[in-house]
Amino acid sequence: MKITECLDTALSQTSVDLACRSRVEKIELDAQGAVTGVVVGGEHVGCRAVVIATGGYGGSSEWIRRLLPKASRVGDWVWHVGNPTNRGDGLTMAEEVGADIRGVDSGLLLITPNFVRDFEVIGPDWALMVNTQGRRFAAEDGAYWEIAEAIEAQPDSRAFFVFDRRLFEDAKPHPRVLEALAAGAITVSWVPKVFNEQLQKGGVHESPTIAGLAAKMGVDAATLEMTVTRYTDSLAKLAPLTMALDPCTTSHIAELHYGSDSSRSDRRHPRNQSCPRSGCRKG
Ligand SMILES: Cc1cc2nc3c(=O)[nH]c(=O)nc-3n(C[C@H](O)[C@H](O)[C@H](O)COP(=O)(O)OP(=O)(O)OC[C@H]3O[C@@H](n4cnc5c(N)ncnc54)[C@H](O)[C@@H]3O)c2cc1C
Fold it and tell me: Which entry of 1, 48, 177, 269 is 20 to 30 Å from 137 by CA?
């Protein structure tokens, strides 16, 4: 049985009145500051207490500006995938009756390559991730909030995923993404079909050399080359452990051709370096 059906059944056994598709506009107080009711559609509805459960504030650019100022760092790469009716009304109403609003920048921004404005969360753990200085800064297979927080801490809160033609063609969504995809709750960006489309649209850059790729990324070529060398060298040392575990093995990374700019979101620490899809470990 669905949660809503359980609630509906429970409600049918009480004298509770429901007002669906109605927006509560205001909490009303008496002269002593005690709650006397709410205003819904211009009408007063009396009550002695109000439980505010109006969700988040993602549907309000004003509340985002106020409570999530870190989002301004990524310009127009910010959008909201939740319920559009979550406009922070509860915050507004509570503040109007004297509540103290706390929690600035406590929300989690999620990573996206910005190919489409939809829910994505998990990037490729099989590609090299570098910042706008061309440096690797976190384990690519960290939890989505770890990657997001690590990107947030980088200059411009931006990162690039760098990979070669073979990784390009072998790209598969993370198993957790496939689960969400089956549930119709997510968009898949990190697959060859989308890469090919984005090559035309400029969301993915291509170059026959790392230096050429660095130029397209706006990244220092020498730094990116050094990062790639270290990355591939560290994988090479582990090759005996991972020989059969393509595409996380070494040589395929030697010629990097593609970089996708992936902007972001929130913080957290890099930690283990394992690649769950292949079982290999990265340097
Ligand atoms: C895409 C997506 C994926 C998520 N995945 C997960 C997950 O995997 N696991 C997890 O734990 N959480 C997940 N979450 C978060 C989870 O959905 C929320 O934390 C949860 O729904 C919050 O519940 P809530 O009752 O506080 O608010 P909501 O479910 O947002 O409900 C608030 C309700 O209040 C209504 N409302 C707003 N203002 C007014 C008003 N003035 N008058 C009357 N009604 C009003 C809104 O229309 C809405 O129906 C996800 C969220 C999103 C957007």
Answer: 177
